[in-house]
Amino acid sequence: MFIVKEKYHIKNLKQIFFWLICLLFISVSFLPPSFMPFLKINFFGLSFSLYHLFLGVIFLLLIVKTSFQSLREIDSFDRMIILLIFIMLISAFWSISPLKTIAKVGNFFLTGIVVYLVSKKSFIEKKWIERSILLLLGISMVVAFIGILEFIKQRSPLYHNTYACYNLYYDWYLHDGAGRIGSSIGHPVSLGAYLVLFLPLAYYKAGFIIGGRYRIVNIFSFFVGLSLLAGIILTFSRGSWIAAIIAGIFYFSRKSFKKIILVTLILFITILLFLSFSERTTVTFNERLNCQRLISDIFYSHRAASYKTTFNILKDHLFFGVGYGNFSLVHLKYLSPGASAEFPTPDNMYLCFLSEIGIIGLGVLMGLFFLFFKDLINAYRKIEDAYLKELLWALMAIFIGFFINMITVDAFFWIPIQVSFWILIGLTRAIVKEKIKS
Q: In this structure, are residues 210 and 218 in contact, taking their beta carbons and an 8 Å threshold?
């Protein structure tokens, strides 16, 4: 009797964790970075947001309420995460600002690893997976819709006053050609990366039909997919376009020819509608896809020059980097010709990791990604449940698109992207480790 009550208590606790993570996802999706100064607390020279406090409480609950046996259930993937955190942490010994490194590691741990651990333990039943997917799709659709309204009105419908005061890029992107949308995420490139994370899930829910009771969900997911596509297009982020296209090609590569044709037609019609929407969209499309502009951006832009900046850093800090979170403190010293002094970021997550934790740290990160995909592919081959098998394929498409997109965006510096990414990692690992009950 005692054992039954304990299991019931643990199950209820995991459901509480699940809803806490959902609440976190909703809040980070609708509270843009411009709001962060109002949510920060200073403690012994370190700056923490209320998000960190919230996640810290969740982590303490996880340790106190979860059995020690379950905490010891770590595998090679989890050990690789521990190794990555350790490398980030010890980089404080040679970083310019050890306090900043410690704060950045704390941020990565709380908004990344804690979200992953809690998500992995929360997805215990298919119904919770179903609810979480619908929540992710619903919230991401609203975020995309806010961006679409921003494009139509040429001002943010909800965040204009705050952005005008605190978001330095808002006015610039709003009048860049047709107007590149930032929605609640606050930046077109980051918004594109955020929306791409959920696009294959929309494909999955729109096309996975089991009986009549799923038809409403399919129709809802179809419109979510259209909203996400519209949002991605209106960011005019070529990196997000490429990531979305590659993720889509991968996802539909094992579908029937009819479905591929149908999706291609829908995408083609959607793009045509945007091109015919107004002259300003056509101008921006032409500008973003102009051959001379593409060549210039590939070889002569800030992002291109960041490769040289990274090389300059590696000449002095090859193995261990300059310290996690310290790129912004050294970029002026190692700045290469063509790189902008105003942007203390390489606009490339891999280059950022390489600069800050060296080839050893980046090697561990790539090993982490390799183990993740290895386990994911093995699970996909073995799993017999049709629902979970199809979901794993969609998740595979998501991560392929995301890892490609990280070439053009500092994804882990944006809390909405990081939280979304680790929720999906937790969901994937729960399925891979066969923790899901019918």
A: no
Q: Which domain holds residue 233?
A: 2-432
Domains: count for the chain: 1
What's the full length of the chain, in residues? 438
Residue 397 covered by a domain = yes
Taken in order 31, 37, 43, 46, the sign of the CA dihedral is positive
Burial of 348 (0-12, 13-18, 19+ CB in 10 A): buried
- Write out pLDDT tens, residues 338-382: 777 777 888 889 999 999 999 999 999 999 999 999 999 999 999
Q: How far apart are CA 260 and CA 253, in angstroms?
A: 8
Q: Specify if 437 maps to a domain.
A: no
Contact 181, 148 (CB under 8 A): yes
Note whether residue 70 is domain-resident.
Answer: yes
Report yes or no: 428 and 124 within 8 Å, Cβ to Cβ: no
| Residue 70 pLDDT level (bands cut at 50, 70, 90) | low
pLDDT in tens, 194-247: 999 999 999 998 874 444 445 787 888 888 988 999 899 889 888 999 999 999
Reported as half-sphere exposure (CB side, CA atoms, 13 A), residue 130 has a value of 10
> Measured at the alpha carbon of residue 31, what is the angle toward residues 200 and 410, in degrees to the nearest 5?
55
- pLDDT class for 65, splitting at 50, 70, 90? low
Residue 437 gets which letter from DSSP?
Answer: B
Asked whether the whole model's pTM tops 0.85, one would answer yes
Residue in 115, 118, 153, 93 with CA at minimum distance from that of residue 28: 115
CB atoms within 10 A of CB 112: 21
Decide: 39 and 49 in contact? Cβ < 8 Å.
yes
CA dist., res. 438 & res. 434, Å (int): 11
Q: Does the residue 438 lie in any domain?
A: no
In contact, 312 and 353? CB cutoff 8 Å: no
Look up tokens 């990565």; give the residue. Answer: 108
Nearest to 110 by CA among 166, 62, 158: 62
